[in-house]
Design goal:
Layout lengths: L2 E6 L7 H6 L12 E4 L3 E6 L9 E3 L2 E3 L7 H6 L3 E6 L1 H19 L2 E6 L6 H12 L2 E4 L1 H14 L6 H10 L7 H4 L2 H10 L3 H16 L3 E6 L2 H5 L5 E6 L2 H14 L6 H17 L12 E4 L5 H21 L1
Parallel strand pairs: 7-9, 7-10, 8-9, 10-11
Antiparallel strand pairs: 1-3, 1-6, 2-3, 4-5
Helix pairs in contact: 4-13, 5-6, 5-8, 6-9, 11-12
Bound molecules: 2'-deoxycytidine-5'-monophosphate.
């Protein structure tokens, strides 16, 4: 058995974990490629081809040197440091890798709050993918309640019907395609003022957050109410005009038409309702990091968020 240590120097900004998942191949003993995260990211390779095949895919580069990766070729990529190591050294690095990955993913929670259209949903998805955490868009839970009432033709302030609908919300069955309609969002903002509905949904959201390996949750009250002990809190915002313009672009990009002033008025009204309600109003937690995306592309926001999170992870791994 030969052993290799490959350290990824973390220079690909674009969703690298996906790339590396493709690397693993059951032809190789022990499914030999693993991730670990210690603030930066790296991986290790161990193994020999079981079936005598001589190929292994490394980051899209095909290597075939006696069934083992071609280290010269990997190193020439500049993103890696690869070397052949002895068994003892490999075992040490391997256990360090597993330990740091374990620390990284034990109950790690990222809370993202902000007004409608600030880009927190996209950011949450990117971060959940990158850190391989579960993802919950809590807005969908309020939307699901609103959708039930609308479907039954019941008024949105019917407290007992809303409570029943909230109890029936199944986080595994939230249908974004159905719930993303504009009217459902408006209605969600109205049922979200009912304290008993919030309590029922918040309980479900907290259970979700506790499920290993941890989660990214986005909404309005995650850092303040749902997960006040979150490891990282982000408050993502943008001016109402920028958010309205993004919404307009989105509608037009799929061939629709809309009026900028009407969208803007909608957004301002929704902000007022979400920020002005008595129970769990939208506001940044005292210890939240603010990300204003008015002048920032989503990629820049993602990188800024990662810098904040990696810092927290590095401190946690030192502890
Ligand atoms: O993020 P969204 O547009 O899907 O949210 C719809 C409404 O749900 C929002 O206007 C207010 C409410 N909401 C809430 O009160 N608390 C949350 N954590 C998430 C959403």
């Amino acid at each position: 058995m030969r052993y290799f240590y490959v350290h990824w120097k973390h220079r690909i900004p674009e969703e690298p974990s996906r790339l590396w998942y493709e690397v693993a191949d059951d032809n190789f003993q022990n499914r030999t490629i693993e991730f670990y995260t210690d603030g930066s990211v790296g991986f290790a390779i161990r193994g020999a081809a079981l079936d005598g095949s001589e190929d292994i895919e490394i980051g899209g580069t095909r290597n075939s040197v006696e069934g083992f990766p071609d280290l010269t070729e990997i190193n020439s990529d500049n993103q890696f440091e690869a070397s052949e190591v002895n068994a003892v050294d490999f075992e040490r690095r391997w256990s360090e890798a597993l330990a740091s990955r374990f620390r990284m993913t034990t109950g790690f929670t990222i809370a993202i709050d902000g007004p409608a259209g600030a880009g927190k949903g996209t950011l949450a998805r990117r971060l959940a993918d990158h850190y391989r955490l579960n993802l919950l868009d809590t807005g969908l839970t309020y939307r699901a309640v609103a959708h039930s009432l609308l479907r039954l033709g019941l008024p949105l302030d019917n407290v007992s019907a809303a409570e029943t609908a909230a109890r029936q919300v199944d986080l595994a069955k939230l249908d974004r395609a159905v719930l993303s309609a504009h009217a459902v969002g408006e209605a969600a903002s109205k049922v979200a003022v009912i304290p008993s509905v919030r309590r029922i949904l918040v309980d479900k959201q907290r259970d979700f957050a506790k499920t290993p390996p941890g989660a990214v949750l986005d909404g309005r009250d995650i850092g303040t109410v749902v997960c006040p002990d979150a490891d990282v809190k982000l408050y993502v915002t943008a001016s109402a005009e920028v958010r309205a313009k993004r919404r307009l672009d989105e509608i037009e990009s799929i061939g629709g038409t809309a009026n900028f002033d009407e969208i803007l008025a909608d957004i301002v009204r929704r902000d007022e309702r979400d920020m002005g309600r008595m129970d769990s109003p939208l506001k940044p937690a005292a210890d939240a990091h603010l990300l204003d995306t008015s002048e920032m592309a989503i990629e820049a926001a993602f990188l800024a968020a990662r810098a904040i999170i990696d810092d927290v992870l590095a401190k946690r791994n030192e502890a």
